[in-house]
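Inverse folding, one chain.
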């Protein structure tokens, strides 16, 4: 059994900073005993721990509310041990999901809150991108395109990524719109059901972005499926190999490429992030010892 003292000694190998790979989020109770030590206690910092293995993590909590700037500043301090580390963060859902008030005044106020919250990360040089994630129900229309343009202008001082999930956005005019606004297109891997957007390899800005949601067809659109059920999927080595080919293609033209694994349940996002690193680096990455024990045969026991 690996001990916490063993787990905390490792650092990721030197990597090409044009590519950063990591999971979405770090605060998951079901990762204890799989990614993190069981009964870890208040002295254990999961963010600092993951920054020993990955060069990026996508902040999920910022989707529900902009973080307190003091909290954002503390995140920066907690990843200081990895100079290559960059955060990405989801933009407040009021700008992407809550349609009750999308007036110009409301959007401007919400963008101001996001800018205030994210400034400590950006000023520290630790912000890779802000992700504006829209739901599948957000379709390509003149009204929605106008709204998106307003949000992009309101946050123009940050590197921006736009995630849409409906196939109606798979249109050259939309990609041109993103280029005109210096916004990156988020290449999503998700269950392709009906009019869902298929996996792609688009580059529309200096940053390229991938999000891997898993391929849980059974629960993706099931109304009573909880968060864990919807994202309960472990990509196979073959699936990762295919996705790595898309990442390589965009990496040839983008200045920075981010690959985020969002299939978080039971640490599967960590497993697949390590899979991507191994494919892209052609060398074994460092592996949290507990993860190797949780996924025997799939994750090699490398410190």
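Residues assigned per position:
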């Amino acid at each position: 059994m690996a001990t916490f003292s063993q787990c905390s000694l490792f650092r990721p190998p030197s990597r090409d900073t044009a590519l950063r790979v990591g999971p979405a989020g770090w605060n998951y109770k079901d990762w204890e005993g799989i990614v993190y030590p069981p009964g870890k206690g208040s002295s254990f910092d999961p963010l600092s721990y993951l920054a020993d293995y990955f060069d990026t993590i996508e902040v999920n909590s910022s989707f529900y509310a902009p973080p307190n700037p003091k909290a954002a500043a503390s995140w920066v301090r907690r990843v200081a041990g990895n100079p290559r580390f960059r955060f990405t963060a989801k933009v407040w859902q009021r700008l992407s999901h809550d349609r009750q008030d999308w007036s110009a005044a409301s959007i401007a106020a919400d963008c101001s809150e996001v800018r205030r919250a994210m400034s400590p990360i950006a000023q520290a040089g630790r912000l890779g991108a802000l992700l504006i994630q829209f739901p599948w129900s957000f379709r390509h229309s003149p009204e929605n395109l106008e709204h998106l343009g307003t949000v992009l202008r309101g946050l123009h001082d940050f590197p921006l990524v736009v995630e849409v999930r409906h196939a109606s956005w798979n249109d050259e005019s939309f990609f041109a719109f993103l280029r005109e606004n210096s916004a990156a297109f988020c290449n999503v891997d998700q269950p392709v059901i009906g009019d869902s957007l298929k996996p792609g390899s688009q580059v529309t800005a200096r940053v390229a972005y991938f999000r891997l949601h898993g391929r849980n067809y059974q629960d993706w659109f099931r109304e009573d499926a909880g968060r864990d059920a919807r994202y309960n999927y472990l990509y196979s080595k073959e699936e990762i190999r295919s996705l790595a080919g898309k990442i390589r293609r965009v990496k040839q033209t983008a200045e920075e490429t981010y690959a985020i694994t969002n299939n978080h349940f039971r640490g599967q996002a960590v497993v697949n992030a390590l899979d991507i690193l191994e494919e892209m680096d052609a060398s074994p990455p460092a592996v949290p010892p507990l993860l190797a024990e949780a996924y025997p045969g799939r994750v090699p026991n490398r410190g």
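The chain is about 35% helix and 15% strand. The two ends are 13 Å apart (CA to CA).
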